[in-house]
Amino acid sequence: MKAKVVFTALLFLSGSMNVMSQDLESLLESETEARTEVTTGTFKATRLMNGHSIERMQKGQLDFRIDHRFGELSDTYNAFGLDQSSVHFSLDYGITDWLMVGIGRSALQKTVDGFLKFSPIRQSTGKVTMPVSVSVFLGADMKGTKPVTSLDSVFTNNLSYSSQLLIARKFSEKLSLQVMPTFVHRNLVAASDPNNVFAAGIGGRYKFQKRVSLNVEYYHVFNKLVSAKTYDPLAIGFDIETGGHVFQLFFTNAIWNTERGFITDTQGNWGNGDVHFGFKISRVFPLIKRKDVAAVAE
Amino acid sequence: MKKLVLFSVLLSIAFFSNVQAQDKYITKTGHVWFHSKTPLKEIEAHSRQVTSILDTKTGDMIVSAFLTDFKFDNQLVEEHFNENFVESAKFPKVKFKAKVLDIASVDFTKNGTYKRMVEGVMEMHGTSVNIKKEGTAVVKDGKIKATAYFTVTAAQFAIIIPDLVKDKIQKDVEVSVEFTYLPYTK
Question: What is the ipTM of this complex?
Answer without folding.
Answer: 0.83
